[in-house]
Write a structure and sequence with these properties.
The chain is α/β, with parallel strands linked by helices and about 240 residues long. It has two domains: about 140 residues; about 100 residues, type ii restriction endonuclease, domain 2 (3-Layer(aba) Sandwich). The protein has nine helices and eight strands. The strands form two sheets. Strands 1-2-3-4-6-5 form a six-stranded mixed sheet, with helices on both faces. Strands 7-8 form a two-stranded antiparallel sheet. Strand 3, helix 5 and strand 4 form a beta-alpha-beta unit. The longest helix has about 35 residues. It is elongated.
């Protein structure tokens, strides 16, 4: 195993973290109020007794950004994990369905699916992934690899390594970063490099977020409010009216 240095990680982050922040910006720059309203549950927001147009729009915006940011940062963490493995284990990005990373360690061929966090999919998604990992294992066994280990690698979370779906090992948090790097403290060491230019990126994002929020509030007041009061019936009709005439 070759060691990976924090300088290596810092360089990778500085060269690649911009894609995450640009993704955040893109996720809000193209936002459309009506598209947002169609994706959310109007009954939930009414039950929360939201009466201010700004609060309603902010709730929509926050919910949208939360899911978008998790997706974008998950993609970045996947690339970071593959980069680290490429140095330490000669790992590389897989081209097989259901597999993100391939590497050899301890005379075992590892096929790894990387998820950013523990709550990543529903029952049909987990069944599909288990099926894809099983197919990948059998493929590499047929290629002459005597020991093949399928891994569901999860970047954060607190759990012991366990079997998963009778197909793979689920390796979480510290154990995952240890698996790909050989360093037991890497999971804490990478937190500082990830903050590279965070303040500058955050300030640019907040400026754009405020601009978009103001634009959405303006449209919401115009189209879904009467004399400043939220017209919930109009919102529900826009969101759900589809009775065939």
């Amino acid at each position: 195993m070759n060691p990976v240095s924090l300088e290596d990680i810092q360089k990778f982050v500085s060269e690649n973290i911009g894609s995450f922040h640009q993704g955040r910006l893109n996720a809000i720059s193209a936002l459309n109020l009506r598209r947002l309203l169609l994706r959310k549950n109007p009954y939930l927001y009414r039950a929360k007794n939201i009466t201010l147009a700004q609060n309603f729009v902010e709730s929509l915006l926050t919910a949208h950004l939360s899911s978008s940011e998790e997706e974008f940062f998950g993609q970045f963490l996947e690339r970071l994990a593959i980069f680290i493995s490429s140095i330490t284990r000669g790992g590389f990005k897989s081209e097989r369905n259901g597999v993100d990373l391939e590497f050899i360690a301890d005379d075992t061929y590892h096929v790894v699916q990387i998820k950013s966090g523990p709550n990543w999919g529903n029952s049909s998604q987990t069944r599909r992934l288990a099926h894809e990992l099983e197919i990948a294992k059998q493929h590499f066994i047929s290629q002459g690899h005597l020991n093949v280990r399928a891994v569901l690698g999860i970047c954060y979370g607190k759990a012991k390594t366990t079997g998963w779906k009778d197909v793979a090992d689920k390796v979480v948090g510290q154990n995952f970063w240890m698996l790909i790097s050989g360093r037991p403290d890497l999971y804490t060491e990478i937190i500082e490099p990830l903050g590279y230019e965070a303040r500058q990126h955050s300030e640019a994002f907040e400026r754009e977020r405020d601009r978009i929020s103001n634009r959405l509030v303006e449209g919401f007041l115009r189209d879904f409010c009467d004399d400043g009061a939220i017209n919930w019936q109009r919102i529900v009709e826009f969101n759900s009216k589809n009775l065939d005439s």
